[in-house]
Write a structure and sequence with these properties.
9 helices; Transcriptional regulator, TetR family; Arc Repressor Mutant, subunit A; DNA-binding; about 190 residues; Tetracycline Repressor, domain 2; mainly alpha; about 75% helix; 2 domains
Length: about 190
């Protein structure tokens, strides 16, 4: 089931579950609470999604798709490859203002559901590999001497900024990461 083929009840379930999972944590939110908040029965949740695990995966996939769209919009607006690297940090700043004050939902979910075989782990790895690939392609297009190495450093800056913004322990974490990224791209 894709987001555009959801029934109205499934859409309410997914929207409700997404809000609850992100703000309260996956383990703290049971199917009873989702049903009550969405105005459906537990049976409707299972009929539409099959299991809580599949609902979690749907929540994370949809959130990841929205995140990627924000990044791609910022990349498309960047005037060049070096500026595009910085645009990813601009995307992060926009995202955290509107959708991500608690940090990365995939990282949070992977921390809660830490079994290596859990599908959440694969989703988190897939998203981080996607972003690493975007950074690598940008550095290759800019003619950087070590695009793969730069991409790893940029990913670390990005993920560290997301975590520290969510935790709130580093003032202006995203701004500082953006400045460090700018220094990195100006070197080569």
């Amino acid at each position: 089931m894709t987001a555009d083929t959801l029934t109205p009840a499934a859409r309410r379930i997914l929207d409700t579950a997404s809000e609850l999972f992100y703000h309260r944590g996956i383990g703290a939110v049971g199917v009873d609470l989702i049903a009550a908040e969405a105005g459906v029965t537990k049976k409707t949740i299972y009929d539409r999604f099959g299991s809580k695990e599949r609902l979690i995966v749907a929540y994370l996939r949809e959130r990841d798709a929205r995140w990627r769209a924000v990044v791609e919009r910022h990349l498309a607006a960047a005037p060049g490859h070096r500026e595009a690297v910085i645009a990813v940090f601009d995307a992060l700043e926009e995202w955290t203002r509107s959708d991500g004050e608690r940090g990365c939902a995939l990282v949070n979910a992977a921390a809660e559901l830490s079994a290596p075989a859990h599908p959440v782990r694969a989703l988190a790895v897939e998203e981080k590999q996607w972003l690493l690939g975007r950074f690598t392609a940008l550095r290759e297009a800019a003619g950087a001497p070590d695009p793969e190495g730069d991409a790893v450093e940029l990913l670390l800056l990005h993920e560290g900024a997301a975590v520290m913004h969510g935790v709130g322990e580093v003032h202006a974490a995203i701004d500082r990461a953006r400045l460090a990224a700018r220094r990195l791209v100006e070197q080569g």
